[in-house]
Specification:
With about 550 residues, the chain is mostly helical. Helix content is about 80%, strand content about 0%.
Length: about 550
């Protein structure tokens, strides 16, 4: 079209146009002849290669290609095997962790009914027994830095499970250990030392494996397994305690379950999970004190980061600001309302079922919600759920026609469930922010800070109950303590700005959308280039005419 317009509008340039046309035709002829020669050469080359060789099966791939395919296939099978081993190890470990409510339910009834402890004494035993949990950063640093037999996660899990077997086995088989308060405290402390070591190693294992394999949902899976164990533990515990009235049998059954977990854990090699010993620890052997000092200093640097320090401060303050009255409410339900153990156990079952449902919803949909908005909703719901105990204490449920058993069954464990669920987004956040090689240190520091805040909350609740005069025979001021709990639960909303706005998964979604846009731009670029070359081929065909 351009050539025709120029030649008709401007006849003086017709000779020039004819010359250009001839030149382009000659160039095209040369290029076509070159392509034909290249095709002919390639054909003759192929004939020379294929001609003398009649056996086609002897043609083989290069060695490097063979090795690459073999290793890719081997890595694929090993990764599938490591995922199965990790699912079994993580599922069994966190399920048993949730099942710890089974012996603890028996121990609470044994101390309240069998030993006739005061509510304040019962709560002191409950929260003082958690003191070994405060030392979790020490266990985390040891797990990160000190290898045992070429592994640094599974051996610590086995050690912690073994200590728990010793503690609960003594309570089950030695009568003196379950009758005197000092002996009970010693067994509880030993059990929690083992539980804290096991929890630190499991949390570090989940964080490290999730980062290396880019699996962000392992924390949700761990919460699901723990909630499933809590459901079954409370259900069986309440029914078993109601029928047998033998707490020692429950201690013995849990010891047998821990022995089974010890067998599963000891039979799993850490190398099968793709977490073999690092070269720097196998080649250089430093003193434990030097390793501990370096790991501790690096942990302090990581904790001082604003992205870690601000949400950590908020979650810790939101727990310790609310005085816990769990011991007083438990004694009120068993001594004043005369609720059966099965009712309290089933209330815990319903609470753990709600926790499991909330965890599934969070894993599917909750990660898309901004974290600050999600935490504000959860905190307000937690504060409102504390008022349900006020309804039970003031017997307002009877005025609405709801018996005490049914109200305690449906709403007694709601506040505890929401308090546990509030920790899940923070576990996911810190697991994604943990530096490589410091997963155990950071996650154990988080667990220690949460445990310390919970212990402080329990001691604050004991002081509040003593100040209000709440005893085993007088619960007249218990409603005032519940109202103080409600007001204190609303206070952390004032510094909600410490919680990050976005969750770590939203950042990944943003990167994924950016990659989609880049791929789209590349496709658009290919379309433009292809249209340009098609236009050139069409123009050359017009010139040939």
């Amino acid at each position: 079209m351009v050539c025709s317009v120029v030649s008709s509008g401007y006849p003086l340039f017709s000779n020039v146009q004819i010359i250009r046309k001839n030149q382009s035709l000659s160039c095209l002829n040369k290029s076509i002849s070159c392509c034909q020669q290249q095709n002919l050469c390639s054909k003759t080359h192929l004939i020379k290669i294929i001609g003398p060789q009649k056996k086609v099966k002897q043609v083989s791939l290069p060695n490097n290609v063979k090795k690459k395919g073999f290793f890719e296939e081997k890595i694929g099978f090993s990764q599938m095997g490591s995922q199965q081993n990790m699912a079994i190890l993580c599922g069994v470990g966190y399920w048993v962790q949730g099942f710890r409510c089974f012996p603890w339910l028996a121990l609470n009834f044994h101390m309240a009914d069998g030993l006739n402890m005061l509510p304040s004494t019962l709560q002191l035993v409950q929260y003082s027994g958690n003191l070994p949990m405060v030392a979790k950063p020490i266990y985390g640093i040891l797990s990160d830095a000190v290898y045992i037999g070429g592994a640094h996660r599974i051996p610590y899990i086995s050690i912690g499970v073994f200590l728990q077997v010793l503690a609960w086995g003594q309570l089950a088989l030695i009568s003196a250990a379950s009758e005197a308060l000092p002996a009970i405290m010693a067994c509880v402390l030993l059990s929690n030392v083992g539980a804290s070591i096991t929890e630190v190693a499991k949390d570090a294992l989940v964080a490290e494996y999730g980062q290396r394999n880019r699996m962000a949902g392992l924390q949700s899976y761990a919460f699901m397994a723990s909630a499933a164990g809590g459901i079954l533990g409370n259900f069986i515990g309440g029914y078993f305690l109601l029928k047998t009235q033998q707490p020692k049998l429950m201690f013995l059954a849990f010891s047998a379950l821990l022995a089974l977990q010890l067998a599963v854990t000891s039979g799993t090699r850490e190398a099968s999970l793709g977490l073999a010993q690092s070269l720097k620890y196998s080649a250089v052997r430093e003193p434990i004190t030097e390793i501990f000092r370096k790991q501790y200093s690096d942990l302090l640097i990581a904790v001082r980061e604003e992205s870690i320090a601000r949400p950590l401060i908020w979650i810790v303050v939101s727990i310790l600001a609310v005085p816990a009255l769990s011991g007083s409410i438990f004694c009120y339900q068993t001594q004043c309302l005369n609720l059966d153990p099965s009712v309290i156990g089933m209330s815990k079952v319903i609470g753990h079922m709600m926790l499991l449902s909330l965890t599934v919803l969070y894993d599917r949909f909750g990660k898309r919600v901004p974290m600050r908005k999600l935490i504000s909703i959860v905190q307000i719901t937690y504060a409102a759920s504390l008022l349900l105990d006020l309804v039970l204490v003031k017997q307002l449920n009877l005025k609405m026609g709801i018996p005490n058993e049914w109200f305690a069954l449906c709403f007694s464990g709601l506040a505890e469930t929401i308090a546990i669920f509030k920790l899940l987004p923070f576990h996911v956040l810190f697991a994604s922010l943990a530096p490589s090689g410091f997963e155990g240190s950071l996650m154990s520091f988080l667990a220690s800070a949460l445990c310390l805040s919970s212990i402080f909350s329990g001691f604050l609740g004991v002081a509040l109950a003593t100040f209000l005069g709440i005893t085993s025979g007088d619960y007249s001021n218990l409603h005032i303590g519940i109202l103080i709990q409600f007001i204190a639960a609303l206070l952390p909303l004032g510094w909600l700005s410490c919680v990050p706005m976005a969750q770590p998964e939203s950042e990944k979604e943003r990167k994924r959308s950016v990659s989609k846009r880049t791929r789209k731009n590349r496709r658009v670029g290919r379309v433009v280039v292809d249209s340009f070359y098609s236009y050139r081929r069409k123009r050359e065909s017009d010139l040939l005419r």
